[in-house]
Design a protein that fits this description.
The chain has 161 residues and is α/β, with parallel strands linked by helices. It has a single domain, classed as Rossmann fold (3-Layer(aba) Sandwich). The chain contains 6 helices and 5 strands; from the N terminus they run βαβαβαβααβα. It has a 5-stranded parallel sheet with strand order 3-2-1-4-5, with helices on both faces. Strand 1, helix 1 and strand 2 form a beta-alpha-beta unit. The longest helix is centred in the middle third of the chain and has 29 residues. It is globular and about 50 Å long.
Length: 161
């Protein structure tokens, strides 16, 4: 049976996506594959100063991925959904899409931070990249309104000036 792939980074929007993915997997009696991608430190970032710092950054990133996946496994288990955890490393959108393709996923469920246009330009949008790269349907789940950052959108402020 084709699984549902959940892409998660442990953020509030990913928590909402987790709930949706688990609910879908349970309703469709499909397995769930949770993938979290480790951000690799920039190799050429000389300002960090030492190999020890780079190694520590990698360790922290790996631990965060493992904690995130453990949380998803616990939620899925509580709901009675079979779930496989995938700890990936590399380009986040590419690894999510690669995992979905290898598992012949029914669909990908991913959270969206709900950032405005300026933040998307500065930080990029993983969910948008996945929508464009994926070979299967993608469900993009926004964070619950109370979890979205309520600070004014700088791009709107600049446009009004």
């Amino acid at each position: 049976m084709k699984p549902i792939v959940l892409a998660t980074d442990g953020s509030p929007s990913a928590a909402e996506a987790t709930l949706q993915a688990v609910e879908l997997a349970r309703a469709l009696e499909a397995p769930l594959v949770a993938v979290s991608v480790e951000h690799s430190p920039l190799a050429g970032a000389g300002y960090y100063g030492s190999a020890e710092v780079m190694a520590e950054l990698s360790k922290v990133a790996a631990e965060r991925v493992e904690e995130t996946l453990a949380q998803v496994l616990a939620v899925a288990d509580e709901a009675g959904v079979v779930c496989e955890a995938v700890h990936a490393a590399g380009s986040v959108p590419e690894e999510i899409c690669r995992t979905a393709a290898r598992r012949k996923a029914r669909m990908i469920v991913i959270g969206a931070h709900g950032w405005g246009p300026l933040r998307r330009v500065l930080h990029g949008s993983v969910s948008t990249a996945v929508v464009h790269e994926a070979r299967c349907p993608v469900l993009v789940v926004g964070a619950a309104p109370e979890l979205v950052d309520e600070r004014p959108d700088v791009s709107r402020t600049l446009a009004l000036s």
